[in-house]
Amino acid sequence: MFWHARKALDLIRNRPEAPSLATSEGPVICPADLFPAIKVSEVMAGLVRLVGLPPVDLGTDIDWRTDPHRNRSWTLNLHALRWVGGLIAEYERSGEAEYLDRATRIAEDWARANPRGATGISPWAWAEHPVALRAPVLVCLSAHVRDDWLSESLVEHAEILSDPALYRRGHNHGLDQDIALLTVGCRLGQERWKDLAVRRMTDSAELAIDAQGVLHEQAPRYGIYVHRRLGVAIEAIRASGAEVPAGLVARRDSLETYVSHATQPDGRLVPIGDSPADTRPSGFRHGEDTVRVFDDGYVFGRTAWDDPRSAFYSIRFGAGRRLHGHEDHLGVTYHAHGRDILVEAGFHSYQRTAYRRWTISPEAHNVPVVVGADLREGTATRLVGSSVTQARQCYRFTDTAYGVGRTRSVLVGHGADLMAVLDSVPAGSALRNLWHFAPSLTVVANRDGQVVLADGEWWVTLLQLATPSGRPLGGQTVRTETIALGHLRQAEATTVLSPPAESVLTLIVPGTADPEVTRSGGRLSVRTPGGHVSLRWDPDLGFADRAPAHSGDGQVKTTVR
């Protein structure tokens, strides 16, 4: 018995001392973009503004369970404490101790009011993303405060961040976890945390970003976020004294191609997936290619770079929906003459509402839906043919998202701006396609398969033709839908729904209310403001000037300069 007692005492004596700010001289790595802009005077008075919502008076005795806006993003950001970091930054700028005192009181109050595992605390207190965003704030505070509560909280955060069961590999949250673990590891002098963070960053980036630069989260807006956060990660690695992995730098650089091609000529990001329609990337480099097919499921094309009047389009295909993607396969957008024409319903918020569910659904996108059939969520779509020249581009896609073959062929004319879309399903089935127009456009005419929309003295015409006859296909339904202009911003917009048909050819002609269409044999000629466009189509083959169908996986790497 005495031997066991001595053994236990030796284990206690030899146990490694817990990391502590009292004994650590590790560097304080405070990422440059950590803190959002705040009104310091408001926060000092107890008012907090988060995620664009009205300010909330938290007072001096904060109820950390509060959720005044019933908004997930607001509550996440409350517990992330990044708004407290603004006070630390103001103290470092001004030297006024009151700002540091207030930041310390809030952070300590949070730590004491939210013990992990306690009942009655907010579920957001220890959710994985608030932990990742909060830990660097505590590290920044530790440059000025070394109290035991802060040491203990940093250790607890690091233990959570290093737990493989809680790690979001290949996700933007995982990148934030890695940045946080690296900063805590450096501050507390723990090499095991530092090394783990850097190893995971590289592995996660190679999973999240493919060799062409496409982020697999299926929303270009997150390409901007991950690019920025990878920049923070690289600077943090350098500050830690470690070597920056070359693969990490390469993956970050490749994101620039993806984001730049997904940016419309007016400077806004095309609102694909959870990408707000008012997002404006800046500083992303691009090459000379004006058309780019990304194998992971995007086609982006434009008339020219750095010209706000350039035409622009996007098309979605590829792997089934995941993470921040929508059920938007076969969906197109179109921008021409300096205007949005065909738009997506976009991203409004992460609130779990019926509207959020609708914005993700096919009906919120410019797609064909099969009448009387249920969507098979997460179905992949293949690009099976393409032809790319400077004057026009043609693509053909297919999937079984509704249990039957659904095929869409897209032709885009540049110079003489035109978008032609041919949709078809097998005999015995019928489809209806949806066309969501920009909120600035209102319907001024609808008859005989022709819908004209206008914004003042500018017009765009949608024409729908039956196939194979090429005769006008009437019976369009025009209705009003609510689309998102940005986070928590909405507008009414016109949606045109085609009549049921086995196959339908849709023409979008910008800049005119009266495009002349002539038919001769199997060929159409469309008069546009930029000149005549001639096209030939077949319901079973698509547009005649497309390239032969690709075999195998349908991977296409065509570009045009």
TrEMBL record:
Residues 323-460 form the Heparinase II/III-like C-terminal domain. It is found in: Periplasm. Residues 53-296 form the Heparin-sulfate lyase N-terminal domain. InterPro entries: Chondroitin_lyas (IPR008929), Hepar_II_III_C (IPR012480), Hepar_II_III_N (IPR031680). Keywords: Lyase, Periplasm, Signal. This is Heparinase II/III family protein. It holds the Pfam family Hepar_II_III_N. Residues 542-561 are annotated as: Disordered.
